[in-house]
Design goal:
2 strands, mainly alpha, homodimer, two-stranded antiparallel ribbon, DNA-binding
DNA sequence: GAGATGCGCAACCATTGGGTTGCAGGAGGA
DNA sequence: TCCTCCTGCAACCCAATGGTTGCGCATCTC
């Protein structure tokens, strides 16, 4: 049973964090101060959010001199997507089985 | 751009709620008191969680006499899965494009 | 009709969490 | 070297949240 890490969902639950992550995906790697310039929050708040994303495995920091550049990671992303897809498939199959039994009540 | 509803991720962020949802998927529809019997929380807590899941569109209540039976819904689930998959694909394509440019620096 | 059962609502409590300000330290450029 | 810029850490504030108890209401069952 693929037990999914709740940290991924918790990380993506916050709108600021989702905006941050999408900004990284579409704009490439970025730093805390650079990302904070385009958001209505302070640099420290962005730093906290990036730490949460990193703990969830959605992002990885790379040190370049005095700045920390963050880059998206797709592993946890696809793992979470798979978990969701499997759950949906399981339920749909259950529904299909029940419907099939109702229409064709043989042994 | 498929802006995903953060309520789905917020709903799945809580471990109790995930357990609740998985229990519904694998065991079929259930009531608040019935689900609470298998969890270390009170019925009222389960009721609140089910309300959150329902608001997120992950579950739907059906009234049968004096009891409320909850059943999973896959629409929001697959929508969230698609959002994750698309994001991962976008980033992977970006990486592939960069790698291709590095190996073959033509116009 | 009377008691049991399932539910929803409200009040309340403790913890988490997103946000801020302030400060100290390390790397770059003049 | 000195100054600037980016970062990390700590303290603090307030709102949101997961959990509880208690109550009232509706619905079965005997």
């Amino acid at each position: 049973m693929s037990t999914v890490d709740g940290a991924v969902f918790a990380a993506l639950a916050d709108p600021t964090r989702r905006a941050l992550f999408e900004s990284l995906v579409h704009g490439g790697e970025g730093t805390a101060t650079g990302l904070a310039a385009r958001l209505p929050v302070t640099r420290q708040a962005v730093g906290k959010h990036l730490a949460v994303l990193e703990r969830a495995g959605l992002v990885q920091a790379r040190r370049v001199g005095r700045e920390a550049r963050y880059e998206p990671r797709t592993a946890e992303l696809t793992a979470a997507a798979d978990w969701l897809t499997v759950l949906a498939a399981e339920w749909d199959q259950r529904l299909a089985r029940i419907k099939s039994l109702a229409e064709n009540p043989d042994a």
